[in-house]
Amino acid sequence: MSGVLLEAIGLTKRYALPGRLFRKGDRSVVHAVEDVSFQVFEGGTLGLIGESGCGKSTTAKLLLRLENVSAGRIMFAGQEVQNANGRELRAYRSNVQAVFQDPYSSLSPRRRVGDAIAEPLIAAGAMSKAQIAARVAELLEVVGLSGRAATLYPHEFSGGQRQRIAIARGLALQPRLLILDEPVSALDVSIRAQILNLLQDLQERFGLSYLLISHDLDIVAHMCTNVVVMYLGRVVEAGDMSDVRRAPQHPYTQALFSSVLPAHPDRRRERIKLMGPLPSPLDPPSGCVFRTRCPRVQPICAERAPPLIETAAGSRAACHFVAPAESLGVA
Amino acid sequence: MNEAKQPLLEVRDLRVRMRSRDGSGELQVLNGVSFGVDRGQTLGIVGESGCGKSTTALAIMQLLPGSARVNGGTIRFAGEDLLAKTEQDMSRLRGARLSMIFQDPMVALDPLFTVGDQIAEPLRRHMRLSGQQLRERQVSLLQSVNIPSPETRLGQYPHQMSGGMLQRMVGAIAISCNPELLIADEPTTALDPTAQAQFLDLLARLRDAHRLALIVVTHDFGVTARLCDVVLVMYAGTVVECGPVREIFDNPRHPYTQALLAAIPQRERQARLKTIEGQPPDLARLPAGCAFAARCARAVDRCRERAPPSLSVGSHHVAACWRAEDA
Amino acid sequence: MLTYFLRRAARAVLTLIGISIVVFVIARLSGDPSLQLAPEDATPAELAQIRAELGLDKPIPVQYLVFVERVAHGEFGNSIRYQQPALPLVLSVLPATLQLGLSAFVLSTVAGVLLGVVTALKRGSWMDSATRGLAVIGQAAPSFWIGMMLILLFSVQLHWLPSSGRLGLEHMMLPTLALALNSVAVVLRLTRASMLETLSSDYVRFLRAKGVPRRLIVWKHALRNSSIPVVAVLGVQLGHLIGGAVIVETVFNWPGVGRLMVEALNARDFAVIQAGALLVSFFTVGANLSVDLLFGVIDPRIRYE
Hints:
heterotrimer; B: alpha/beta; 11 helices; 32% helix
């Protein structure tokens, strides 16, 4: 069992919206991320899944320290980093890098590719110009591009090639964790396969850990060892990928997996239909936030928010009606 | 009198040229595309970016951008030649007999006008509805696509709704005047998984209720598995394979189709996905022979010399490959 | 909608206060008027007395508060040059400036928008190229040059129109044209660009797919959408046309606020400077506020923010 590289404990992020001019007390609060906890294991891939507005992108921003947490802790290799500053923050940042979704906007069109990849190295200030140039060439080769690419501009490359460049940039500081936010959604199917294979190769070669954020459940099932399911800023289910996929416990996870399109015309799946629209994050439902759309809703769901508990099936789920794991001792 | 049953839509040898993005010349983006669709039938057009699938859809509707022009082939709809029609004639047909919906619902509607106003536009134009009758039809349309409190929604603006709801509304608008043909260009690509599944179910329901001829343009084989009877696979502006959906999934004959299907992540965690080496070809410099030869594991000299025609490989199943028989 | 308006109005008031402070401070920094009023051989004591009379011996913040209090009562003090109350003086020449400015505004808006729409629809035609060429000249040429060229052509050569003064309708034509030309060019180019962008947007494509006739697409949907950036610019243009008519008023000897302000600045006539600047600012801020309100009417997304 490999060690825990990154741990999120009770991450919470609330945004306060500006109040209205004549009603000072009426400040609205968006609960973007609420009490989210998970672990990324060394050498493993954690999948963060959920639909628009579930808070997965905000969680990524918190982990990258692009935003500060409202509450909660981030532990990296045993150190608390959510409040780190200066040298500690720089050290953390060199260990945790990101690759984003859109290969067309994540690279500055005015910068040569070589400069874009060198940027984090220059910012770190530890290498000479010659060393940096050598490293850039090395990184390009690692991601399957020729060293000549360094002198070209992003627009001279295809989407898949640009994403390779973004990955090279992400690897520049030799991070231990790469956060991949929808890394292949904008790419064609055949190119997706190339990039996913590359990511797997890099993981094996450099012992990387990944946090993969995606709404494409097939890709998540293919790549991830563990998974966290988010809804309206909260974790509703978490566990091993194989457990969760085989037997999802939370009604939302069940609905999500049931909506995956069939791989063959003869394989039809009975889709679990969710009732009603997504509630506003400004005014989340009381108790269990999923209750307004849940097919199994009961009165208790409005009264008490269900805690995330170990289920008999192996994963952790936040629902009043899952079968809990047998506890040893106190009932 | 011609007794042979003609399909509702018949596309023959369609060719389209387009000015290249940097203005340096023209590209042949469609190179002889042929197919037919009938009422009650669903055709899926599958391919990756640049293959010409969206161009085909836009050509049928005569909505090609100004930089593109049709330079060959015919498009017949209910026996009439669409390419011969004026813009005015087409605008009377669009929305009334043939309809199209696009990928991103968030930008499909004019943000400055209410949703109700925009639903009413084709109803006023094609069905001459007004007043109470118009209102009733608007409400019933929204109900038919499962939008709650339709009366309130009519007075709202697009930015007040979610992507899934907007796309359902777009679907309602598209079938509001009972068209015979509906083209959906990547209708679920911009939606979340649950909204996607919901919309595809809706599309299937509308198709059955109105006996539509449905064309779904997509890069996602899951969508074709869910909805389509016939699948057309495109590459670099040509049809490389066409056949019944089960045939395509169980017995793909063109190397490109086989490679695409193999590149889809399966549910199980696997070692590696099978990829297609190389990049799609530059349309400005298409090779003399088969456009896929450069990336094909089975290519031989013949493939590089002459582009293969569509050869029959089964019942209603064709593939443009010299070696399709040796699959 | 009401909150939106109130917020914008509050911001406008704050802007005016800020302007008044700036005007006040700059006028004071530009020099000491007591030197202008006193005879050449005045003693320091006599200078001090003049200053005291003008209230210039008190500390600046106090002078400002006194100024604000007086402004609230409409008192700007007396013009040093004309020995009359400043505000009525400025108000007396204001109609001339407003007449010129508003006429130029209406002309530039109507002509600019119409030409912008037409050139967008007929993109690539000779008419499009010619109009855009003229627009570039219109925007680049300084207004005094345009004014003088117009005078040369229409007054001196052709004797069609008078070159100065403000007597009848024919006197207004050349100055209005000179003032408006720059603005027409700006509005035209922006309308055209905005229109072209709108016409290639996804919702226009869907409108066509619905079978909506072309005239509705252009005049109902596209025009309204393209007008958003244009309205923003129109607000700025209105401010320019009212407050910035100084040069045109000088070239054509038009008796407006601009000309008065130039004289007042040369003479360090505080009272007139302040009255003029505040009044013009008032109209400019008012114009911008109206534009903001217009946004709320045109675009529902802004209304609901």
